[in-house]
Amino acid sequence: MGDVGGEECGVVGITSPDAARKAFVGLRVLQHRGQESAGIAVFDGENTNQFKDMGLVSVVFTPQRLAELKGDVAIGHVRYSTTGSSVLDNAQPVIVDTAVGKMALAHNGDIANASALRAERQEKFGWAFFTSSDSEIIVRLIADEFSRGRDVVGAIRAAMKILVGAYALVIMVNETVYAVRDPLAVRPLCYGRIKGGYAVASESVVLDFLEGGVFERDLRAGEILEIKGDQVTSHPGPSERHTGHCMFEWVYFSRPDSVVDGQYVASVRHRIGRILAREHPVSADIVIPVPDSGRTQAVGFADECGIRLGEGLMKNRFVERTFIMPDQKDRTESVALKLNPIPPVVEGKRVVLVDDSIVRGNTMRKLVETLRSAGATEVHVRVGCPKIIAPCPLGIDMKTRDQFIAVKGVRQEKTDAEIARELGADSVGYISIHGLVEALRRGHKDLCLGCLTGVYPVKIEGERHRAQESLDKFFQVEPILGDEVEPSVPRQKLYQKAADGGSPPDADAGR
Fold first, then answer.
1. Catalytic site residue 9?
2. Averaged pLDDT, 384-398
3. What is the 8-class DSSP label of residue 386?
4. Which of 30, 98, 303, 497 has a CB 3.0–4.6 Å from the CB of 143, allowing a cystine?
5. Which domain holds residue 34?
6. In the chain, how many domains are there?
């Protein structure tokens, strides 16, 4: 990655024999979504047990620890903190005792009104919170609804009514897993069949690594999916409303081999590269990607403009994603360890350096300097995401405007030329918002573009927001029984590549 913000987490849910081991596999596949902590909770038929710790999945879960987590139902979590400090107390899943038994919850996203909800509950009801994570607020709100006599789905719906923000949840109550997607579907969540049961995950690619994995579909906006044994019940959210899919899932966060909301990520990134080349052509000798997330955009750029693609930067595969490190000093030091130039590829060349996005500019500045030191005569930077100008309250670690390289003064953007001077580049070109929307094949009203425009799909204090319907609708929705859940979309169809970087058919078209 270049200088993109860190997305909060990855989540999995498993209902299948040897569930903890399968959750472990899923978390390893999702390791790119969080590297601070990892945790798995299981239900063994009588009790809910868990283990979580700071560190990578492969370090936290030894074979011995996995063997101790017995049961046919499990949920798991990898974390990068955007709300709440990076300490073990904030690691997930979060488990609480409730009126219906122990409940475990894993959360991906950010609750924009978390501070207000926390203060209100403390002042009015004397609630004591044990972590600084907004995920504890969610689980406590749901548990409180149990005490009022609501069933699990009713309790989740009641909490959804007052939560403002982005959330993809997996919740385990005894032998049942509930998957929950927020009313605007900001964060991704999907489910599919695996041998012996079902799996829920932040990204569809998890199903590729589980035996018998077959992608069913993405959860819809506001949907609660209830999985118990071989029964799947969908409790839908309101219909005919706009979504707020986070554009960063396609631009950077998700793996290129994932399908996110009906679109193959690699195909979207290839289209971004092509459009970027049309918008910002340049005379050069070689196109070099910033590995790994800028690679597919660079391929599209090279294909469109006819300039040779080359690997001019070598990535150290054993250094974690820099921006999802919690400490700025760690990020800066790791940049030098992560990428190294290959002089014979760049020496004497006019280079186009293609990256997925730029936020702070630390990595890109260092890379431009490195390529010049390796002999590049010119370095032209091309970026597959428009300028980041506004903070993200919905799950990305970009909280203040003063950290963005594209911002100067009060809500003013720097020009491309000004940014090029700061980076030491010969030129800089960002894809336009129009070009990005074209590549995503989604309308403006179905995307969250808040960090690009300063206009958000939900109400954020002190910020502009687009019109949003009331969340009251979430109480009067009838469930769809498992035998009525719509048939799966064949995974081969979703992963079919179209010519020239085209995307596969949308999932909706295949249902």
1. yes
2. 86
3. P
4. 98
5. 9-241+472-480
6. 2
